[in-house]
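Worked example 3 (structure in, sequence out).
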């Protein structure tokens, strides 16, 4: 059996079943108790959250799915960014733990990624409080598209080769810095930019996804704290608690099954899928849709 296709055992296998059921139950309660006029919108929010959770563990993209989806539903860009960053420390540990359980996390990649990512996310969150949210969203979306195109061109030219050893820690830290800044300033970019840059560095996609999920936890926490501190006295950090609960439940419930998907996909196909999905989700924001 491939080292990237280990079967989940014990508690991991249990949570692969329990988490989706718990998520559906919480979403059902939220929908049942919501005002009738809000139920349709809340159901759409739940679908966006589920798609983001599944994408996080299967292709390494969370905010890059969640934020564009919320923008399409009419959620303001600043609110969508804060929601994305607030939810990640709550649900990403589920996906990170499941990837660690099947061998998709490598410390030599995670540590420098976290160091660079924390610096980048704090800096990005600080800039987000003074820059126009729509401009930031377009700029990050354009960066996601460019990196995605580079990944596709790289696959076409060099195929699916991987590195024998990890890239230098300084390069991984720089990737964390860039991806963390994008995530901190817009709520998206850690996966669409970070995972793809790791793939360009010839890191096995499953390792890139699993390691980036572990790194995403402190990065999101750092960005949320920066938002909270820099927004004291204002209303920028205001969050709809019912929407937040729905997104947490739907994302968390869909996250663990994605780990099973990623272990069964060919490397080149997985890399191409990550790039194509990221480009497709980012293009509407580049042109101002939503």
């Amino acid at each position: 059996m491939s080292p990237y296709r280990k079967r989940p055992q014990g508690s991991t296998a249990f949570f692969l079943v329990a988490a989706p059921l718990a998520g559906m139950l919480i979403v059902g309660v939220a929908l049942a108790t919501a005002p009738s006029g809000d139920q349709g919108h809340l159901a759409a929010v739940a679908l966006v959250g589920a798609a983001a959770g599944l994408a996080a563990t299967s292709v390494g993209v969370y905010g890059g799915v969640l934020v564009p989806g919320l923008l399409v539903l009419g959620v303001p860009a600043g609110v969508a960014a804060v929601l994305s960053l607030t939810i990640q420390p709550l649900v990403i540990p589920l996906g990170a733990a499941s990837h660690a359980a099947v061998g998709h996390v490598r410390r030599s990649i995670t540590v420098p990624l976290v160091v660079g990512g924390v610096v980048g996310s704090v800096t990005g969150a600080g800039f987000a409080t003074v820059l126009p949210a729509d401009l930031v969203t377009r700029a990050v979306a354009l960066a996601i598209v460019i990196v995605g195109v580079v990944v596709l061109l790289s696959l076409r030219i060099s195929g699916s080769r991987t590195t024998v050893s990890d890239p230098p820690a300084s390069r991984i830290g720089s990737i964390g810095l860039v991806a963390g800044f994008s995530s901190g300033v817009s709520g998206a970019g850690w996966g669409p930019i970070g995972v793809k840059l790791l793939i360009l560095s010839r890191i096995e996609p499953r390792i890139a996804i699993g390691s980036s999920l572990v790194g995403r936890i402190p990065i999101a926490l750092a960005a949320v704290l920066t938002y909270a501190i820099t927004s004291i006295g204002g209303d920028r950090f205001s969050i709809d608690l019912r929407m937040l609960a729905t997104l947490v439940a739907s994302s968390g419930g869909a996250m663990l099954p994605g780990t099973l998907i990623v272990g069964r996909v060919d490397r080149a196909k997985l890399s191409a899928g990550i790039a194509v999905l990221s480009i497709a989700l980012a293009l509407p924001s580049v042109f101002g849709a939503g």
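Notes: The chain has a mean pLDDT of 80. The two ends are 44 Å apart (CA to CA).
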